[in-house]
Amino acid sequence: MKKRTLLLATLATAVGLAFQGAAQAASYPSKPIELVVPAAATGASDLSARIFAKYAEKRLGKPVVVVRINGASGYKGSRTVREGQSNGYQVLYTHQGLIANYLTKVAPYSYDGFKVGPAVVEDATLGLYVSGKSGIKSIRDLLARARAEPGKLKATAEYGTLSHFMFLKLQKEQGVTFRLMDTGGDAAKLAALIGGTVDVMARVYSGTEDYLGSGDFVLLGEPTGKRAPNAPEVPTYKEQGIDFTFPPYLWSLFFNQDTPDEIVEQWAEVAREVTSDPAYRKEIESLGMAWTYKSPQDSAAAYASIQKTFAELVDRESAVAKQ
To answer: What is the pLDDT of residues 239-277, one digit of tens each?
Structure first.
């Protein structure tokens, strides 16, 4: 009798929660939504989030306000959403930096600490840059010098971020060693390479065009299987005979675990409509990025694959020196 009563109570709770989730979804959204970006202003995350928010709010009928919460390589912003009780009124806009944070113990959770939503932007152009004064003209030149002088070449790799994992993967697969230096975010990386504090930098293509045009920087290629759609003039490493690839940045929406599934699915439909809009696509491409759409299920599968790749690098992790 007690078991039956307990079973009935459990079923009643489950049904009640299901009805509650459906009711919340039916009236959603009833107020402005915060799109939380765990990154600095004017960076790729911030700029692309603003474009997505502009098109999403047209379909949702309520303001979608971009809120930047930077710090600890993105951990502060992701924690705000994960620990909140927003029921879909705080949505995290980020990429696989969540995985890098987790594997480097910056954060105690990974992408699966959230309900994974749709992906709406990607960027496969995390390339390697050297100074125009270095004499290095190709990825082959860089690897040859790194092999000749193990641990001497200084690489800017912000700890717990994708640039950090790119260098770990490059070292493992190509049998080279760099001295990894944590110089800070994108602006600090640019200053470090210009000032000669480091010898090589990993960065996305957008925002480097002027430095390339002036000859201050040399871009050694892109780590993609085929040329990136947002930088078709840049050759891949594979084209140059170097078998090295790296997963593209994949920006997705993430939700607190308490968010009703119906609201996540509502966002998936909004994202599908937004990414089908030619005007949205044009604005994203104007940033030097690429639009995409992946369902919540496909996004989660992509992150699972990336985490498996990154996890294999952790045991071989090299220390990252602070500047």
So the answer is: 999 999 999 999 999 999 999 999 999 999 999 999 999
**CATH of 126-247 among 3.40.190.10, 3.40.50.300, 3.10.20.310, 3.40.50.1110:** 3.40.190.10
DSSP string, 120-176: EEEE---EEEEETTS---SHHHHHHHHHHSTTTSEEE--TTSHHHHHHHHHHHHHT-
Q: What are the residue boundaries of the structural domains of the chain, listed by start?
A: 33-123+248-314, 126-247
Structure tokens of 166? 């790119």
User: Position 256: which residue type?
Assistant: N
What are the Cα distances from residue 146, in Å, to 69, 143, 233?
37, 5, 26
In CATH terms, the fold of domain 33-123+248-314 is D-Maltodextrin-Binding Protein; domain 2 (3.40.190)
- What is the residue whose two structure tokens read 């910056």? 106
Residue with tokens 């004017």: 42
Predicted TM-score (pTM) of this structure = 0.85
Q: Which of 60, 61, 36 is nearest to 50 (CA)?
A: 36
29-78 pLDDT, tens digit each: 999 999 999 998 888 899 999 999 999 999 999 999 999 999 888 999 99
- pLDDT for the residue 17: 47
